[in-house]
Predict the structure.
Amino acid sequence: MEQQKFRQAENIALRKMAGEHYLIALDIGESKMFDLNETGLWFWKQMESPKTKAQLFAAMLNDYDVDRQTAADEIDRFLNHLIERNLINVSPEP
């Protein structure tokens, strides 16, 4: 998973409603909403263009006052969460 790139799925829209941010999965016949906290919104915006885990890690260390292990754990947790819900596309490793 180290060389894979992660990017927002095309059928997902980010919307702000009543001061909260939501990801809306737009599938034929079914729509799902997922609320985002501040960190989730940061992740989502990072993946507007394809990013590797290393790029996400460097950006998190730059943008947040967090230790390396916490950053690595949070990135793994959130990427797994997005992958399980089909909210991001994952490119194959070269």
